[in-house]
Amino acid sequence: MAIMLIMDILEVKNLNLGFETESGFKQALYDVSFSLKKSKIHALVGESGCGKTISAMSILKLLPKTAKITSGEIYLSEQNTNILTLNNSALEKIRGSKIALIPQDPMTSLNPLYTIENQLLEVIEKHQNIKGKEAVQKAIEALELVQIPSAKSRLKSYPHEFSGGMKQRAIIAMALACNAQIIIADEPTTALDVTIQAQIMNILDNIKKEIGTSILLITHDLALVEDCADEISVMYSGRIVESASTKEFFKNSNNPYSKALLKSLPSNKSKKGEKLAIIEGQPPSIQQEIKGCKFHPRCEFAMPICSQTVPELKEIAPKHLSACYLND
Ligand code: SF4
């Protein structure tokens, strides 16, 4: 068997996925490929329904029953096995211990009936094989890492005694307590106000720098990722349409969809009361069959070829990919 050389901590290659619907099988992801480097944050960005969450959930194989991965490969750096081929018990070992999930709604991960201490100790005992005082000390350290004040006394709290931001920090602490090398953060700040959003992003950035955790960040909010993400992949209607380092992306964004997303961001130069640009129209649902570039009904630069064939994702500058006929 050929040995696969995995350079990054996570590599997703040519992932194709669809859903069984009443009107037949509908494709939702098309050849999605991206990678995550050690101690880096890779942001998957796009409007809701573009496929970013389902791409991330495919890594954990936490998919709705109607979803089916039709082809593709997912590799972790330590395993030369396509994890999509693993059975449930092998995948169960990876979930939590190697890859942890921070969901949008922290209450889906915190059990309201148990204290934060009970829940943290459970994962520490399971994943770090430590018990007693040493485990309690690890739990305190995990809460301190996510900047929960008076960590020792807050261990005794129940989730309902925490604010939304504190709950989200407790979930991040649980991921750290598992010793997870990869965190998938799915819109981790959507339910929080702007100040708390910045604090959570700051905590994720610190974890990346101090512990070396790699983070796949799913978000619709480009403004949120400018300061913390190292790489960005923009998705539209199930495809990656642009991918680059964050610095390169914000300096030289290329794809008309990415540019439209960027135009809709507030900037330092925006005047008070000035209206932000909006992208006219809606992203298509998976039921809608659109030929060619799926952005063409909304694209101000669309040409006849755009509605005929899908543009290829091509390198337009070193490590900067974009799918658009304007580059040809
Ligand atoms: Fe717009 Fe055509 Fe480029 Fe698609 S391929 S983004 S429709 S110009």
Give a count of the beta strands, DSSP E runs of length 2 or more: 11
If helices are DSSP runs of H or I spanning 4 or more residues, what is the number of helices? 10
Shape: globular
Give the low-pLDDT segments.
none
Summing up helix and strand content along with how strands pair, one would put the structural category as alpha/beta
Rg is 21 Å
Q: Largest sheet at a glance?
A: 8 strands, mixed
Strand content: 15-25%
Give the ligands present. iron/sulfur cluster
For the terminal residues, how far apart are their CA atoms?
39 Å
The averaged pLDDT comes out at: 90
Task: Outline the secondary-structure elements.
Elements: E1 10-21, E2 24-36, E3 41-45, H1 52-60, E4 67-76, H2 88-97, E5 99-102, H3 116-128, H4 132-145, H5 151-154, H6 164-177, E6 182-186, H7 194-211, E7 214-219, H8 222-225, E8 231-236, E9 239-245, H9 246-252, H10 256-263, E10 314-317, E11 320-322
Parallel strand pairs: 3-7, 3-8, 5-6, 6-7
Antiparallel strand pairs: 1-2, 1-4, 8-9, 9-11, 10-11
The structure holds iron/sulfur cluster (SF4).
Describe it for me?
The chain is built from ten helices and eleven strands. The mean pLDDT is 90. The chain is of the alpha/beta class. The protein has helices at residues 52-60, 88-97, 116-128, 132-145, 151-154, 164-177, 194-211, 222-225, 246-252, 256-263; strands at residues 10-21, 24-36, 41-45, 67-76, 99-102, 182-186, 214-219, 231-236, 239-245, 314-317, 320-322. It is globular, with a radius of gyration of 21 Å. Bound molecules: iron/sulfur cluster. Iron/sulfur cluster binds next to helix 10.
